Amino acid sequence: MKEIDIIIFAGQSNMQGQAEGRYLDGAVCGAYEYRYLTDSLQPLTDPVGENIRADGSEGYPPLTSGVPLQQWLADNALGQACYGNACLAPAACAAVHAATGREVLAIHAAKGSTEIHQWLPGTDGYAALLRKVKAGIRKAGETHTVRSVSLMWLQGESDSIFHCTRETYAERLVALGEAFAAEFGLAHFGIIRVGHFCKTDWDEGIIAAQEDVCASHPLFTMLTRLTAELEQDPANMNPDVGGHFGAVGLEKLGRAAGEALAAII
Questions:
Q1: Domain 2-264 is in which class?
Q2: How many CA atoms lie within 13 A of 208 on its CB side?
């Protein structure tokens, strides 16, 4: 059987994808997305992700359906790229495939407006992510030899909003990574360093915590710090939703993270 590398895309809205449009025309060569609701591997293309409730059933559709935001957030545990547009997963997987020559499977498990404690063991977010990831690994194993399981994490904006301390965020990040390693053999927890969403010292605390963990724990790797550069240019941002990367920015961010992960795996 062919070898395949699995990449889990987890975090909040910038990982879920909240772009104003798409950058992808067609499917990514050599890449698939695992769809939990149909238990299938599909060609990787926009929009990535699924709207899934905490009980594993199909959730509310993207926000363009008219469902109030708070209702959508309360009832969905995982979310598809907002508005049916871009996220960074296709660019990341394309970069990994180009570098390794191996097929890649994306498992998208992200949800906007989440704090890190909402992903820890015992929460709906953790249970939903775990259920989807384990099912995806099993499904991939039916047709491929799974060579590696890695995760890309882009999250922390909400923790800055709610004033999570550097020390607390770091402790929770380590707890999350170690839980994933124990549950499904995660080999690499790659961090896309969070940007300056609030533009306050609380942003700096989250950024520092992510740097601390990558410097001190062998499971964690800093994949890219490109957010700090991209957020300086409006061309990379969603002009309609402040603090969120647009299609152009997500493509750049995904490609950089994918190239860094490929060098590791």
A1: alpha beta
A2: 11
What is d(CA 12, CA 111) in angstroms, rounded to the nearest whole number?
A: 5
**How many beta carbons lie within 10 A of that of residue 46, not counting itself?**
23
Tens digits of per-residue pLDDT, 92-126? 999 999 999 999 999 999 999 999 999 999 999 99
Distance of alpha carbon 226 from alpha carbon 24, whole angstroms: 20
What's the predicted TM-score (pTM) here? 0.97
Distance CA 262, CA 265 (A): 5
Angle in degrees, 0-180, between the axes of helices 201-216 and 166-184, rounded to the nearest 10: 40
Residue type for position 189: F
**How distant is the alpha carbon of residue 100 from its chain centre?**
21
List C-alpha distances in Å: 150 to 178, 222, 239.
13, 13, 31
Q: Encode pLDDT of 115-169 as tens digits.
A: 999 999 999 999 999 999 999 999 999 999 999 999 999 999 999 999 999 999 9
Mapping DSSP to helix (H, G, I), strand (E, B) and coil, where does residue 242 land?
A: coil
Bin 122: left if φ > 0, else alpha if -120 < ψ < 50, else beta. left
**Amino acid of residue 4:** I
